[in-house]
Amino acid sequence: MKVPFSWLKEYVDIDVTAQELEEKLFSCGFEVEELIPVGKDISGVVVGHVVECEKIPDTHLSLCKVDAGTGELLQICCGADNVQAGGKYPCALVGATVLATGKDHKTVEGVLTIKKGKLRGYESCGMLCSGVELGLNDDLYPGADYFGLLVLPEDALVGADVKPLLGMDDYIFDISVTANRADCQSVLGIAREVAAVLNKPLKMPATDYTTSDYTYPGLNITVEALDLCPRYLGHGVRNITPGQSPQWMRRYLALCGLRSISNVVDITNFVMLEIGQPMHAFDMSTLESTQIIVRRARNDESIVTLDGKEFQLSDSNLVICDGAKPVALAGIMGGLNSEITENTTQLLFESAKFMRDNIRKTSRSLGQSTDASSHYEKGISEYTCELGMARALHLIQELGCGEVTASAFDVSAGAPREGKRFTATISGINRILGIEVPAEAILDILRRLQFEVKQDGDVLDVTAPRYREDIEIGEPDLAEEVIREYGYEHIVPTFLQASSVTNGGLNAAQQRRAKLKRTLCGQGYYEISTLAFYADADLDALHLAEDAPERRVIRLLNPITSNLTIMRPLLAPSMLNTVVENLKKGNNAGRIFELSNVYAPKELPVTQLPDEIPHLGFAAFGDDEDFFTVKGTMEALAEAFGVRFDYERAEDVPYLHPGISAYILCDGKRVGVFGKLANQVTGELKLPKDSKANHKIFLGEIDYNALCALLPESMRYQPISEFATVTRDLALVVEEGMTCGTLVETIRSACKQVGDVELFDVYRSEQIGEGKKSMAFKIFFVPEDKALTPKDIDRFMNKILGNLKHKLNIDMR
Amino acid sequence: MEAKINALKEQMEISLGAVQSQEELAEFWQAYLGKKGSIAGLMKELGKVSAEERPAMGKFINQFKAYAEQRYQEVRAEMDRKELEARNKNEQVDITMPAVKRPMGSLHPITIVKDQMVDVFAGMGFEIYEGPEIEDDDHNFTRLNVAKNHPARDMQDTFYVAEDIVLRTHTSPGQIRVMDAEKPPIKVLVPGRVFRSDSDATHSPMFHQMEGLVVDKKITLCDLQGMLDEFVKKIFGSEVKTRLRPSYFPFTEPSVEVDVSCFECGGKGCSLCKGTGWIEVLGGGIVHHKVLENCGIDPNEYSGLAFGIGIERIAMLKYGINNIGLLYENDLRFLKQFKD
């Protein structure tokens, strides 16, 4: 929201500087994002009086002697055709900055610092300037568009800074207005806040006007869609005399970035900036059967707007129609067919309230956004409609550009025309704030903000200003109004003085998650954080079948990019992408993990909240990694959580190597899988061919909830034997295909005294024979109620050997 | 006899001086101090000495024995010392050679900062609640006083997965879920991931927030500032102060923006605080009456305060990270810098 400082001064006697006002606005909730000095690139330009001026022969240049109040006459070469002795022009002294223009002398190409120079051998100590070089145009200062020097008034004081003279000693406040304060989306709205914060009276813009006796015959306005248009004001004006707007109006429009067009069009724009009411004017002569009908569009209708674009409409769009066809897209843009032109002599002003939700939807769906639609989207009060119309009609008369007729229409859905009235208490306001703001201060602040307040002891009977549609719940609203004017520095920090003592901290499940993460960190893993969405292509990269269950995914209806379209059903793609990105950056080894949700729809399309399932994803890559280093991580996890993992060959996971991957079993149930990245997936990675590390990538994923369900709830101490554990080694020669797991299980099941069984050596040699291997185990025997004797151990060993022979047909070496 | 002992003593010194190794030292001991050694031999000869001289001579021999043992121990100690020295020297390593590292990972900076924040509030009696990341419109907007046509919906670019189901745009729906489930007094933190359709140097389509909610009798704006004062001191340092200024959120009234005094320059003004001396860190306010009512809590009996903190914002400030994207690139060279 851009507001010129000089324009604010029309409504409030501001006796502080722009910088001080910026502070004041900040303190009451209006952050000035930028305080922009007008002509911020211009400096060191003064009024210069050309005392002598001679043409330099055979050039377009003139050699001037200029009095710029510096105590000496400056010699300046000037190429403008309108320079003459006796004239006063802006003179940029050596060291001044002005805008640099291109060859056409119009296009601004940056900022120029004036230096002493020579032109055609003549020394030039400064520059006489055009309007463009000072950043001006005809709207900002008359004559500034002239292709030559900007002519200054004869009485201009020689040597004085030109900025005040040219209206350039001004500031633009670029103010961030919060979404609840639609009433401040105008110069007047900000002026109201300025008046309140400076405790100055507000001078309202003039809105008086007189009407003629004339009424347009047959003119009628009906609103069929009162739900989308709760208020519609229309007023006929005739005998329009097209022309230029006065300089003051053109200047304000220009400071806000609008170009002057013609008096009537300028009035509509001015009222929008000043009052915040988007106005529209229809050329009355174009309206079929002098009718205005506000209704939903029909599905077969279309409209061409002022900018020449055609839109197909539907019944969700609100249109303004004449007796036959749409003539405006309500609240967004007028129709080309009813446009005001220089030939317009009769017009109908519209000042309406359209529902912001509908305007927003139409604007979005048609891709058509305007200053008017953005005002409507923020919200317009009916007070603003009334004020805007009155102001526009006043300006028609003030500018003398038309006759305000007696044809006035006011269609309303019947909303009350008073501000919201409610009661509140001083004590209630202070209870919210936690401090004691004196009653007088509260009353003063509310009155400054144009609330009507009647006090009866502690009780306040409050009527909010009509434009304050944000006020809705009484005391909390008033508390906010009071404290933002009274000052937040009055709040005295208290540390939950009156609240109950509560017992905080992490619950058991949260502590377990923290422990899991720390365990993995202890194993050399770095926690990563990846986006919760990716694309189908990421699942394709894992060679997941089209009909794999993970392909049933939740899709974003409005993704921002094509590579972020689905809520992830697996962490593996995120892990793999992170590994690949690291390899690309030369990080050739690493271990990573993430404990994060995957998403599974209950049904498709989604009609209820989906399941969010926490998964533990992990990856390890680099020369030092192999299946067993990662298996070691799993063992560490199992140990940390007091469970045992078993492993089952995983041959059907499309992205893992069928021979180097395993399902993780806890208590006999599958909780996850890990293994080496499948060769075909590795081969397709976008990595340099010579990158060795890409051959050693291990991925894993655990269903965290499934694992947690199997973890022991609590533990009780197991009595430990008072007798020593005894170990015995056993070496077996077995077929190459025999697995370690089978042998361990067979040894363990032979005898209940067997505790741990550890493989400590695998050995292959010619002596043992082709296709065979020797495996050596350390067996731990745990005594129960008496010490184990060598005889006991022999007996146990015999049982074990018997079991091996019987079940696996293995003889001891 | 005495002369013999003196001669033996001289000879002993010579033998001891010649000892080069532990073996020779053991031989020396055998030769002089052993059961069949020279000194034991002297004792046997004592019988031949006259009765008058015997006590004096016995004493003399004993003194000699003690002396010999002492000398033996001295030499042995010296030898042990030299051997240890030699061994130590032999075993010495080049301590400037590279270390053998036992790999140690670390938590993501967001987790580190989140844990620190949770820790501060846990100490104040806050429990931790984590709600769903995919939310219905009702929890994410409507019951937080963000009605269908509310301008606040324009402030947030929301990802939709169905007409009324969204990726939560903030952790505030956690407030509703907690108040539905629990009666006051409530003190709860809701950390979590949130999603908005936005992506540039300071915005990521996914980021982390932490919501705080206190509902009790007589909660005031002063309590909000007092509590946040404690929080920022713990996170940014004991010198740091807070400043409240007016703002707008649909679910709080009054609403405030909370700034902290710049911990880089101490409030004098620097590039971090853009010369203002203050840094915006979070938003909050007094829970809107309608939000309490929407959860069946009587606003005449109870009041609440709520605040929302961007965890990335805090992490970026704390660690001087200037691009939010770094937090999601997961480059190990970046991650390895963070130790908790």
Automatic annotation (TrEMBL), chain B:
Reactions performed catalytically: tRNA(Phe) + L-phenylalanine + ATP = L-phenylalanyl-tRNA(Phe) + AMP + diphosphate + H(+)
Occurrences of domain Aminoacyl-transfer RNA synthetases class-II family profile (ranges): 119-337
Location of the protein in the cell: Cytoplasm
InterPro entries the UniProt entry points to: aa-tRNA-synth_II (IPR006195), aa-tRNA-synth_II/BPL/LPL (IPR045864), Phe-tRNA-synth_IIc_asu (IPR004529), Phe-tRNA_ligase_II_N (IPR004188), Phe_tRNA_ligase_alpha1_bac (IPR022911), Phenylalanyl-tRNA_Synthase (IPR002319), tRNA-bd_arm (IPR010978)
Signal sequence segment: none
CDD domains, per database record: PheRS_alpha_core
Domain of life: Bacteria
Gene Ontology molecular function: any one: phenylalanine-tRNA ligase activity
Its EC number(s): 6.1.1.20
Residue ranges of coiled coil: 65-94
Cofactor: record remark: Binds 2 magnesium ions per tetramer.
Major site of localization recorded for this protein: cytoplasm
Binding residue positions for Mg(2+): E253
Cofactor(s) for this UniProt protein: Mg(2+)
Keywords: Aminoacyl-tRNA synthetase, ATP-binding, Coiled coil, Cytoplasm, Ligase, Magnesium, Metal-binding, Nucleotide-binding, Protein biosynthesis
UniProt xrefs under PANTHER family: PHENYLALANINE--TRNA LIGASE, MITOCHONDRIAL, PHENYLALANYL-TRNA SYNTHETASE
Quaternary context: Tetramer of two alpha and two beta subunits.
Family note: Belongs to the class-II aminoacyl-tRNA synthetase family. Phe-tRNA synthetase alpha subunit type 1 subfamily.
Name this polypeptide is given: Phenylalanine--tRNA ligase alpha subunit
